[in-house]
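2.7 Reproducibility. Because tokenized structures are sensitive to small changes in the input, we list the exact sequence used for Elongation factor Ts, including any N-terminal residues retained from the expression construct. No trimming or masking was applied before prediction.
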Amino acid sequence: MAITAAMVKDLREMTGAGMMDCKKALAETDGDMDKAVEFLREKGLAAAEKKAGRIAAEGISYATVNEEGKIAAIVEVNSETDFVAKNEKFREYVAAVAEQVKKTSAADIDAFLAEPWELDPAKTVKEELSSQIAIIGENMNIRRFEKVVAENGFVEAYIHGGGRIGVLIEMDSAVYNDGAREVAKNLAMQVAALNPKYVNESEIPADYIAHEREIIKAQTLNENTGKPENIIEKMIDGRLKKELKEICLLDQLYVKDGNLTVQKYLEEASKELGSKIAVKSFVRFETGEGIEKKEEDFAAEVAKQMGQ
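Resulting structure tokens (single pass, no recycling of outputs):
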């Protein structure tokens, strides 16, 4: 039976499901509207779409690495409330998403959502997400992911605050033992705590440095009117250097020993291990960063629910 746009529109209005999901449901059920509704309900898509307008700004960031320390994944999955973020079923689902990321070849979130769900290949990742939304009862969102594969070294994972922050750190190292892993874990904790943006200054884009220099220059001129130009330039250089050190991991003061920079800590650790160990890259996800949370009056929300 030919599936028309009008049929898709009618099914969408009946269920609140997405246009493409309705089209697929009708195709799977040969245009039978009742069966298509049941198809969407079974997949959890009808229930999911009704919740899709709600803001999901809570949730957890989760990081994991395989036993060999070679393949790692980090994901952020959002929920509407912190209560659900602590739910064991939700956390198990997030862990399963991370396991799939370890094996994915997807370059972006859309490609990842379109993949078959490994634990039930009859569904896509998106369909499984919709099923979980229906089961858990809140809007959820796989916001972002990253996969790290170590070539000449290993990756270590760290989760802070029950999933508030997740970190992957890739180390360049010829050894992979408890000592090397401890060094990596310490630096992953550093990344979680002090939120550096780059490993070292050579990674900082030139336009970023130029932009920050202009801001510091304006601040310095406003605060030091009348001072000679050469003095002003030295002050600008000093402030810029200090700022860049704060955003570069290797230049930061090591959190476990304020007498050392991270670079010095790595040099000492290399001596103890008898082999050079260095940071190659890191990824840091903080749950909900950059998401505007919708603030609503609780009484008004209850009244709205009762009105429905």
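The longest strand covers residues 140-149.
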